TrEMBL record:
Domain Nudix hydrolase: 1-151
UniProt-listed PROSITE patterns: NUDIX
Domain of life assignment: Bacteria
Protein name according to UniProt: NUDIX domain-containing protein
One Pfam family this sequence matches: NUDIX
Length: 158
């Protein structure tokens, strides 16, 4: 069975258009990279034991140390090239603040084959960015969520 992931894409409408909250992936592999090195706050879950929306909220809290705004709306599910599937939810983040964010950590053997385990942040920073900038910064498998967000916002305007 392919791995499953769920996350939350926050948006806010500004005078310049739509901005989204994305997070730069932490750890040594992503250090110094910008293009395709950002992600929607998300993580893996077992669909046998957890609903995607519950997993998305849990992962948002784990990665950023903050509660996401509510309510959530499901944008869709997309497959990465490796087969992993990500379900993305959306919420209005107009009143959301990154003040007090505390990034979760993970352990990794580093350097590889050294036998030493080090702790790294799951994300090393989070930022609001335009959807145009996010289209370059997000990992490829999450970029379809930006088009779905635009459709979602257009439906709200009706």
């Amino acid at each position: 069975m392919a791995a499953r992931s769920a996350g939350i894409l926050l948006y806010r409408l500004t005078g310049g258009g739509t901005e989204v909250l994305i997070a730069h992936m932490g750890g040594p592999f992503w250090a110094g990279k910008d293009d395709a090195a950002w992600s929607i706050p998300k993580g893996e879950f077992d669909p046998e034991t957890e609903a995607p929306a519950d997993a998305a909220v849990r992962e948002f809290r784990e990665e950023l140390g903050l509660d996401p705004p509510a309510p959530l709306a499901e944008l869709g599910t997309w497959a990465y090239s490796g087969g992993k599937r990500v379900t993305v939810f959306v919420a209005d983040g107009t009143a959301f603040s990154l003040d007090g964010a505390v990034f979760g950590e993970f352990e990794l053997e580093w350097p590889p084959r050294s036998g030493r385990t080090q702790r790294f942040p799951e994300v090393d920073r989070a930022a609001w960015t335009t959807t145009d900038a996010a289209a370059t910064r997000l990992v490829k498998g999450q970029r379809p969520a930006l088009a779905a967000l635009e459709q979602h916002l257009a439906a709200l305007d009706r």
